Amino acid sequence: MQSNILIIGGNGTVGKTIALIFKSRNPHHQVFIGGRRTGKSANDLLVDVTKPDTFQTLLDHQIHLIILSVNDQEDYILRFAIENKIDYLDITKPTPDLMNAYELAKKQRINSRIVFSSGWMGGIVSGLTNTLPGQINKVQLFVYYSIKDLAGESSAHFMAENVAKPFFMYKNNQPFSVKHFLNSELFEYSFGIGKRTAYNFDVPDLYILNKIEKIPDVTVKMTYNSKFVTWLLGAFQSMRIFSILSLKERRMIFGSSGKGDQSVFDIVISGHMGNKTISLKSTNGQAELTALSAVLHAEKLLGSEKHDNRIYFSHQLHEPHDLMNSLNAYESIHIETIE
């Protein structure tokens, strides 16, 4: 059966990649692109997340699934999807916005599938983590970020806006306040990257793994491909330079984007049934990996499996090993596991 899919923010880096991958894998579905300006095609729709009066076009075109790849800070699209019983998949929210949106959705009567997929690289970390059977006690996510990679501006804006603000990691189910680029730790990254100094980094997986998956200890740290840049950001934070820079100046620091590079992360998992490290590399970078993750989640919503009308975090749409196999089957993705 054909469904009508709308990718809001579909003219951005990740949105374009979602459309490309989705259409190549699902040619029988109709894909519309939503943006702040009208396009050249009948499939280009004017949808501005800050202007709810532009949303009528979703009903006019009988949209079945919204994929949101631009940050809707006021949750206008989320409210519209719930009110009009439209399936919804959001890959964009930073942790505070995700928490607010989840609380908002829980207070509503849900008659469609509302999916939050704002974890690292499209919300796949929790799904991979759950491939370790039994109770999980501790998860450490180590992110390798290349400044040469092609990145959308939303992630840069998030870092600029939040780099000087504290956030929470978790130990023994208790939140402890930290800041980005402090508390360095030496970690042996996979795929030949080697030992790198990694610093605190805020991603929604901290909240998802502790509050949703009930894992007591959760931390996330990251390193840049440039050791100098990693050290410099740590020095800026320790000397509180980020606190005195303007938002414009912070955006200049984090706003650069390259033409593409590999994206790597390692998940170190400890549980009652043992320990496991899952390492993933996307040779085509974070934009493609995030887009592919969104497509895999969308395919679950559109597939023959029955998912009830309720709120989900995206990993809950998949069996853990099925998600890993789907990722591993994609030609630019490589996964290694050590148990």
Give a structural overview.
The protein is an alpha/beta fold and 339 residues long. The protein has two domains: 151 residues, Rossmann fold, CATH 3.40.50.720; 163 residues, Dihydrodipicolinate Reductase, domain 2 (2-Layer Sandwich), CATH 3.30.360. The chain contains 13 helices and 16 strands. The strands form three sheets. A seven-stranded parallel sheet has the order 3-2-1-4-5-6-15, sandwiched between helices. The chain has a seven-stranded mixed sheet with strand order 10-11-12-7-13-14-16. It has a two-stranded antiparallel sheet with strand order 8-9. α1 packs across α12.
- CATH homologous superfamily annotation of the largest domain: Dihydrodipicolinate Reductase, domain 2
Low-confidence runs of at least 5 consecutive residues: none
Examine the coordinates and then state which fold CATH places here, giving the name of the CATH topology of the largest domain: Dihydrodipicolinate Reductase, domain 2
Helix and strand pattern? EHEEHEHEHEHHEHEEEEHEHHHEEHEHE
Q: Count every beta strand, where a strand is a DSSP E run of 2 or more residues.
A: 16
Distance between the termini: 42 Å
Q: Name the structural class.
A: alpha/beta
Strand order of the largest sheet: 3-2-1-4-5-6-15
Give the CA-based shape: globular
| Rg from Cα | 19 Å
Brief summary:
The chain is α/β, with parallel strands linked by helices and 339 residues long.
Pick out its properties:
single chain, 339 residues, alpha/beta, Rossmann fold, Dihydrodipicolinate Reductase, domain 2, seven-stranded parallel β-sheet, seven-stranded mixed β-sheet, 34% helix, globular
